[in-house]
Predict the 3D structure of the following.
Amino acid sequence: MSPPLYFLRHGETDWNVEGRLQGQKDIPLNSNGRRQAEVSGRKLLKLLGAPALASGGLRFLSSPLGRTRETMEIARHAMGLDPAAYEVEDQLKELSFGKWEGLTWPEVQKVEPNLAWNRETDKWGFVPPGGESYAMLGERLQPWIDSVEGPTIVVSHGGVARVLMALIGGAPPQRAAMAQIWQDRPIVFANGRYDWK
């Protein structure tokens, strides 16, 4: 069994509002996203307690993208911690949507209707042109999962959360690929399951 993971999705961006596929594009948080990051940090503070957070017994890891790093820094500040005292882990980067990044789903359906249909029928296994499937993201994440040695707070992306739901949270892959991932609610992965907090 993996040690517990406390997972935060980055806060909202303008592309989230517009329904654009962000993937690995480095889109900043908007004002609501910054508020969501603060809310998430306060929720973790309530869940774990200030002594545990300050004890040094928790590792803090972020995806390298700006929206996750800003979320981590705001959340750490809300927890009463040094905003900059965390590590960056490249494997926690969002899955790539390849040439679809920047498009809305209706735009993808208009430009490439057959490929859009293929993705809808196999969201876990489908590879966007020049991008990654959830299955491929899982292969990228597995070495990192295997390396986790203790309780860890992670700030990453919706696609990463979905893959963790399948790999360590007990969800069937196709169901995990369809999961809604909120931007102001932590997910706790522990004991082969996941719980929203």
The two ends are 21 Å apart (CA to CA). The beta strands are 5-9, 59-62, 87-88, 152-156, 187-190, 193-196. The CA atoms of residues 95 and 172 lie 19 Å apart. The domain at 5-190 is CATH 3.40.50.1240 (Rossmann fold).
